[in-house]
Amino acid sequence: MSENMLVVLSIPFLGTVLGSAMVFFMKKSIHKTVEKLLIGFAAGVMMAASIWSLLMPSMEMATEQHEISWLPAVVGFLLGIGFLLLLDSIIPHLHLHTDKPEGIKAKIKESTMLVFAVTLHNIPEGMAMGVTLAGAMIGNVGISLAGAISLAIGIAIQNFPEGAIISMPLRTQGVSKLKAFVYGTLSGIVEPIAAIITILLTNAIVPILPYLLAFAAGAMMYVVVEELIPESQEGEHSNMGTIGVAIGFVIMMILDVALG
């Protein structure tokens, strides 16, 4: 694996680290309006990345492989959603917008499950990075290194508020700033790991790369619909979540079109 690829892989993780580090500079809690804006922003980035960085290259690659252009995209997308749905069903974790445990022990459990939930949902983002870089490595015209970089930057941008959303609530529950930072950072470590594993399997996955791109897109969209959108629209100031989605979507779209 080249040094350039390792640098690209580190970009999303850096976003999580910087976001988690906000716990050292911000007040003890995030204002609900700002939190909804950040969650909506992350959702918008992931939506745009799913379309321009994953589904469209999937269809272009399928055309090159003389398949029906939309078939791998449809199959992979539905499998990605189904896979995350299955994980959500068999692995207990916290749904931000529904589970509200009470009491000190419950708050500790909530903190642990929150980190676990975000860590679980970061896996598809790592896969997305891996399959995109794998496509660039094999010289596929549907995916360029610049496109992979734009996806890495987009994921890093949405990882920034995600890291803050993890570390700041932990701080409000009495966790030290350092521990809150570490927990937030650890939630993002699965991304480069998942990406590296995917890249190492490049030779084996080349024939099914269009399906894997769409699979990653489906998994990311599941996180958006199941977790981020409901959380951003709950209670007051839901319009800030909507504004965040629009801003995140447009920024990621511009990044992908400009660099891809």
Secondary structure topology:
Elements: H1 3-20, H2 32-64, H3 71-90, H4 104-137, H5 145-172, H6 177-186, H7 190-200, H8 202-205, H9 209-233, H10 238-259
Helix pairs in contact: 1-5, 1-6, 1-7, 2-3, 2-5, 2-9, 2-10, 3-9, 4-5, 4-7, 4-9, 5-6, 5-10
How would you describe this structure to a colleague?
The protein is an all-alpha fold. Helix content is 79%, strand content 0%. The chain contains 10 helices and no strands. The protein has helices spanning 3-20, 32-64, 71-90, 104-137, 145-172, 177-186, 190-200, 202-205, 209-233, 238-259. Helix 4 runs parallel beside helix 7 and helix 5 runs antiparallel to helix 10. The longest helix has 34 residues, at 104-137. It is globular and about 55 Å long. Residues 96-106 have low confidence and may be disordered.
Keywords:
mainly alpha; 10 helices; 260 residues
Short description:
The longest helix is centred in the middle third of the chain and has 34 residues.
What's the helix count? 10
State the end-to-end CA separation. Answer: 21 Å
Which structural class matches the secondary elements? mainly alpha
Beta-strand fraction estimate = under 5%
Element-by-element helix/strand order: HHHHHHHHHH
Q: What summary fits the major beta sheet?
A: none
